[in-house]
């Protein structure tokens, strides 16, 4: 008798996102095709970007006026080059908590990816107000998803705790911004990492681990905080 080979379940691409970031939308547009090409399963993790910023002591792009201006230029160029409509949310920044809770797998179930698609596209290509619950419900309803049912779950304590936990786990894994993509313990940050991600998925990662270890072991010559204190 021949040996029956068990089919191996596909490894995962872990995608960490917050709807407040256009870069997360841009990355989400690319991830499904890469997952399909390399037989990977996508695991989508909504996280609170503001909590990542607080943890690592950063400001968001929208909080730095020149960076916000650059962001708008970049997004318009990127969308034109890649052939899709860029029409950012009606209000930005906005409170993303309702949208993020709706996108938890435990809330959206088998419709998780469709929910994420609907919210991302509605906000960043159609100019919808992603901080407004009736708008979120409408975006889901347009995709034949029961938005009312989904929305009724997001005020429950256990759902709130699920999002808190997703964010905490992300921080524990070293996630410091969105979008972040973790593949086989390799973390990639930003929508401009797709070329590097594909090289890794294809087994052609050019990263020299020995050099990386040498670079990371170099001592710090100065710390910005210490520099400021010294010169005050």
Parts with pLDDT < 50 across at least 5 consecutive residues: 1-7
Structural class from helices and strands? Answer: alpha+beta
Give me the side-by-side strand order of the main sheet.
Answer: 2-1-3-4
**First-residue to last-residue Cα separation:** 81 Å
CATH superfamily: Glutaredoxin
Major sheet attributes: 4 strands, mixed
> What's the number of extended β-strand segments?
4
Count of all domains:
1
Radius of gyration: 20 Å
* Estimated share of beta-strand residues: 5-15%
| Shape-level CATH architecture | 3-Layer(aba) Sandwich
Helix fraction? 40-55%
Question: In sequence order, what are the helices and strands, one letter per element?
Answer: EHEHHHHHHHHEEHHH
Averaged pLDDT = 93
CATH topology: Glutaredoxin
Q: Shape from CA axes?
A: globular
Class in CATH? Alpha Beta
What is the number of helical segments per DSSP (H or I, 4+ residues)?
Answer: 12
Task: Provide an overview of this structure.
The protein is an alpha+beta fold. The chain contains twelve helices and four strands, in the order βαβααααααααββααα. The chain has helices at residues 22-37, 49-56, 65-82, 97-102, 105-108, 112-124, 133-142, 147-151, 157-172, 194-201, 209-216, 224-230, and strands spanning 12-17, 41-46, 180-183, 186-189. The chain has a four-stranded mixed sheet, with helices on both faces.
């Amino acid at each position: 008798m021949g040996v029956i080979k068990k089919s191996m379940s596909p490894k995962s691409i872990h995608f960490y996102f917050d709807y407040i970031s256009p870069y997360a939308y841009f990355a989400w547009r690319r991830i499904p095709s890469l997952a399909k090409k390399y037989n990977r399963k996508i695991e989508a993790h909504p996280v609170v970007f503001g909590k990542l910023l607080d943890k690592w002591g950063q400001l968001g792009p929208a909080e730095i006026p020149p960076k916000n201006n650059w962001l708008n230029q970049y997004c318009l160029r990127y969308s034109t080059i890649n052939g899709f409509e860029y029409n950012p949310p009606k209000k930005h920044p906005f409170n993303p908590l309702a949208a993020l809770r709706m996108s938890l797998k435990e809330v959206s179930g088998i419709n998780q990816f469709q929910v994420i698609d609907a919210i991302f596209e509605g906000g960043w290509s159609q100019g919808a107000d992603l901080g407004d619950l009736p708008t979120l419900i409408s975006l889901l309803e347009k995709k034949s998803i029961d938005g009312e049912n989904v929305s009724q779950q997001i005020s429950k304590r256990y759902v709130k705790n699920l999002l808190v936990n997703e964010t905490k786990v992300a921080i524990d894994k070293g996630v410091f911004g969105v979008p972040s993509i973790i593949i086989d313990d390799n973390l990639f940050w930003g929508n401009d990492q797709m070329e590097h991600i594909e090289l890794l998925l294809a087994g052609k990662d050019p990263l020299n681990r020995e050099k990386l270890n040498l670079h990371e072991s170099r001592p710090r010559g100065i710390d910005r905080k210490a520099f400021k204190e010294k010169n005050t």
